[in-house]
Design brief:
Elements (H helix, E strand, L loop, with lengths): L6 E10 L2 E11 L4 E5 L6 H8 L6 E9 L2 E2 L5 H6 L2 E4 L6 E5 H13 L5 H14 L10 E2 L5 H15 L3 E5 L7 H17 L4 E6 L3 H6 L3 E6 L2 E6 L1 H10 L7
Parallel strand pairs: 3-10, 3-11, 6-9, 9-10
Antiparallel strand pairs: 1-2, 1-4, 4-5, 7-8, 11-12
Helix pairs in contact: 3-4, 3-5, 5-6
Length: 249
């Protein structure tokens, strides 16, 4: 399907714990596009992120998730990841006993499906850490254990850079970040995007401040499990001025 979008969501309905949360999401992301979804608390933003990456706690009751024209709705999360999907979590999990370096070595090997040079991977890790303003000693720390909020988010962007996904879903990556940390994370996303101009990005957020740095091509407003408006940065500006109630149907 040569004309198929890079990533597409068709009529997605999702339930969690027998409660319907998403009530028909339609979204198409072309190669190289940056999309943003904004919504208030409880609108279904994190449910959407988890459903897109195949979290088994979220049940797709109808609809499809498409990657490169292939229906991945029933694929496990690790299979989706190997085929080019990436999720930066709002609350990254700690993995005691596994260093950042070892985690990334294994993740890159799994993503490529072949043995990769440990030395070359290490060099890439160090190069990206420098670009993300991370101390070199960070690579020997256990993943996310004792990390500050900003360190966790930078570690997620480091993973994204190393895994070279085709589509990256950022689930409230700006949550809990101060101005300096937000700037570093946003510049990291842009740096990865510069290296992979065909990569699509879906940034899910509650606030406009991340969008001011990422400058998305398209902005969507999610309310009560549905996308109720789509446009450009003018939508983010309207939300800033009028709040979400202006979009409630």
């Amino acid at each position: 399907m040569a004309d198929a979008p890079l990533f597409e969501v068709r009529g997605l309905h999702v339930a969690a714990e027998d409660t319907q949360i998403l009530a028909g999401i339609d979204l198409a992301i072309q190669a190289g596009e940056v999309h943003a979804i904004m919504g208030p608390n409880g609108s279904g933003k994190s449910t959407l992120a988890n459903a897109l990456l195949g979290n088994p706690e979220y049940e797709v009751t109808s609809g499809e998730v498409m990657l490169h024209g292939d229906d991945v709705t029933e694929w496990d999360a690790d299979v989706r990841a190997k085929h080019g999907m990436f999720l930066a979590f709002q609350y990254p999990q700690e993995i005691p006993g596994v260093t950042v370096n070892n985690f990334l070595q294994q993740a890159v090997r799994a993503r490529r499906g072949e043995d990769v040079s440990v030395l070359d991977t290490r060099r890439r890790i160090m190069g990206w850490m420098e670009r993300l303003e991370m101390d070199a000693r960070f690579a020997e720390r256990f993943l996310n254990e004792g990390f500050s909020g900003g360190e966790k988010k930078r570690a997620e962007i480091l993973q994204m850079a190393m895994l070279e996904p085709d589509i990256a879903v950022l689930d409230e990556t700006d949550s809990g970040l101060d101005v300096d940390a937000l700037r570093i994370v946003a510049s990291g996303v842009r740096a990865v995007k510069d290296d992979r101009p065909e990569m699509g990005v879906l940034a899910i957020t509650h606030y406009r401040r991340l969008l001011d740095l990422l400058r998305p091509d398209h902005v969507h407003v999610l309310m009560d499990g549905r996308i109720v408006a789509s446009g450009g940065m003018e939508l983010a500006e309207k939300l800033e001025n009028d709040g979400y109630e202006a979009f409630r149907t």
